Amino acid sequence: MKKTDSDWKKKLTPEQYRILREKGTELPFTGSLLNNKEKGTYVCAGCGTELFSSDAKYDSGSGWPSFYAAHKDKIETRADRSAGMVRVEVLCRTCGGHLGHVFDDGPGPGGRRYCINSASLEFTKK
């Protein structure tokens, strides 16, 4: 999906743009979807691609919405060595938007914790 910066700025809020396009991070415990417990699907705020099921959401205590599984064919990961850390960045495969990071300290069979910014997501209720 190819859009110009101007196109993205028209579509996204300033906070969504900062996170999705400039790889920002929202402050912990401030995201609008952190405490959402409704059933449904979390989609990319940039392009609407389905990324996470509410069934995989859990309270990690980290301050960001956390999921133990993602729709694997809808995300991509890459090494992130910014901010003096070594992490694995999670991006939307469709539009390339920065979603957050994935860590190997989650529950379940995969042991993953997808730590995702609320501003990079929209929620579709079942």
Bin the strand percentage. 25-35%
| CATH homologous superfamily caption | Peptide methionine sulfoxide reductase
**Protein structure class:** mainly beta
What is the 3D form? globular
The count of strands amounts to: 9
How many structural domains in the coordinates? 1
Cα-atom radius of gyration? 14 Å
Distance between the termini: 27 Å
Largest sheet: spatial strand order: 3-4-8-7-6-5
CATH architecture: Beta Complex
Pick out its properties:
3-stranded antiparallel beta sheet, 126 residues, globular, 6-stranded antiparallel beta sheet, mainly beta, Metal Binding Protein, Guanine Nucleotide Exchange Factor, Chain A, 9 strands, single chain
Polypeptide structure, described:
The chain is mainly beta. It has one domain: Metal Binding Protein, Guanine Nucleotide Exchange Factor, Chain A. 11% of the residues lie in helices and 32% in strands. The protein has two helices and nine strands; from the N terminus they run H-H-E-E-E-E-E-E-E-E-E. It has helices at residues 5-11, 14-20; strands spanning 40-44, 50-53, 57-58, 66-67, 75-80, 87-92, 98-103, 113-116, 121-125. The strands form two sheets. A six-stranded antiparallel beta sheet has the order 3-4-8-7-6-5, with no helix packed on it. A hairpin with a 5-residue loop joins strand 1 and strand 2. The model has no long low-confidence stretch (mean pLDDT 96).
